[in-house]
Amino acid sequence: MTDSCFSEVVSTRPNPEPCRSQDRGKFEILQKDGAARIGRLHTNHGLLNTPMLLPVVNPNIRTIEPREMWDKYRVEGLITNSYVIWKHDDLSSSALENGVHQLIDFPGVIVTDSGTFQSYVYGDVEVGVEEIVKFQKDIGVDIGTMLDVFGRPDMSREEIESAVEITAERASISLDIAQDDLLLNGPIQGGLHEDLRALAGQLMGDVKGTNGGFTVHPIGGIVPLMENQRYRDLFSILLSAKSTLPPNRPVHLFGCGHPLLFPMSIALGVDIFDSAAYALFARGNRLLTPTGTVRLDEITEWPCNSSELFKWTPEEVRSLDSKQREKVLARHNLEVTQSELARCREAIRNGKIWQLAEERSHSSAQLREAFLWVLDQLEEPDDGPVGISSLRMISSTNPVRKGGEKLVEDIDERPHILHFKSLLALRWRIPGSWWNDSVKDPKRVVIIEGASPPWRESSLHTVVSILEEIPESIILISTPIGLIPYSLEDVSPWSHIDGSDDIWDSPLDDDEIFDELIEFDLSDLPYVRITPGLISELEIKGKEEIYDWIDRCSIVDKLSVLNGLSPSIGCKMTSKMTSRKSKTKRMVNVYSDGVHIISPRLNDGGISLTINGARMINEYSSTTPIHFGVEYDGEEIDHPGIAKVMIVDDAIPFVGQGKNVMQGYVLGADPHLIPGQPCLIVDSNGRLVAHGISVTSARDMAFMTKGIAVRVRDGALKNEKT
Ligand code: GUN
Question: Can you give the pTM of this predicted structure?
Fold first, then answer.
């Protein structure tokens, strides 16, 4: 009898391509959203496209054949236990003779654990630190694991300190044995102590063997927390460890594999998961779904489908013999796991990973509690390791993004919204002069309310008549997620909040307005609230001067809030500004004295430079970033200028012609660089080489050696001979 009621043809996937030897063990980041990243790790048995899960395969019990995982479920890598193989003579001799890939019958990446988990479960293991690394090397493992010391959450601080210390001592011994033949996991212990997790991240991140450091850092000692759904502790550990771990290495959550935890963990920076959950839950007659677990004996219809379950009804699966039932459920569980990871990767690409985490947080009380705790850390970062990671996460999140966002309970605390609001509070300034050229102090704040976006359609004419009446008026728009200056009216998601019409009809109360005006430093001014009315075309004729001034404010404010330019430089750049507009009256090209310098980004409200705009900015401020590794001892300034990336001389001829800046060729980058926002690329003398959009943060660039650092839009040296 076959496993399913349908006969099926499973196409055979070709074996993976080994990586180039110089790329082995390198991790590259293809896209980032805050701490979340789409990456790939290069190995001898192909790529691991992250975030991904390594299904646990017990070499003695194969609920799903590894070959089927490769062919049918596109599993790129799995994890098995080298200690189990080492302990069983038949497995060990076969692995030593033919290699672990043949033993397991899997062509992709094979990761092995070391026996540490067995020592946690059974008290001890009889294998030695060097012996287990050598064994993993001898059987041809791609990524092995050193024998770390499992730090249980119930241990005393002294015991945990010792687990961290001994693990770090064993690290260099293990790396020396692994040499160039075996990539190694360097686990991070530290129990529930944030400082010890950060210390472990530092020690394990820094340690070098004769052939370099670790390839991956798994976070260890967390299985007991997950078993008890202590997700808040899990996330505090993750954020603490991430505060010191090198960003050029993937982070693996050891033993975490429930799809429910993927979106939040990924949003906080996890790249690799591993788990036997797909098989263990199947053995217990349970199905995984993206929002929780369901018992087979309690259902009439499938709550969540998969290609495997479409073949059966629950009743039919219940009547199968236990082995067959286990396989059906395990296949479903693996499929759900794989598709939830694909959903997460797609969410990172679309800038929606946080929203997915937010949605999933409603699926479990413990996860919700943990999610709300994370929001508290983002809103008020402390000065410990969790605060460092939280701040880093916000500052590397692109504040603007295309597409609408539904107005939901937690929208205010999304990292991109928090980032935008903090940039507004820090960098937005009242105009230096008004449309009639007066430089008087502002007289009042006018708050536009009861109007929905696009505000240039619903409110522009009203704004013009307000300014005509009193030029020294500061115009803000009331939105369901706070006040924004009229000059930023098309910044997304503010201009794309989805909800019923009445969300635009619920004005802020006076206290809320006052609190917001404090953030803008405008609380000393009187304010009026206005709902835009209809104004006839006749009334707006002859007021071009005001319209032009509004356009100019928009460019100056975007350059300053999003790109860090001082408003005075923005004013100089736009002193001879003209623009070309679309049919919907949006600026598409901005010119200075007839030269095209800027193309506003219509999909998210940001700014796109042209090479002439980049030249102009660099002339106004020809600073260079400080070299990586050198401490900045100057003052923090509100407008540090557009972020710059300084590259090595060898790369200049290529980048100057328009080729991308590759990681490893960057000498220094401004810390306020935001992935997804424009930056200038300069040489060590501050000369402009190109401009582009950064893919990673400055900290990433200091560590990474593979992948694109900046996607170049245009080279500045195109007319120069190379
Ligand atoms: N598997 C689950 N947790 C751990 C851990 O802390 N260390 C190792 N090596 N394996 C694990």
Answer: 0.96
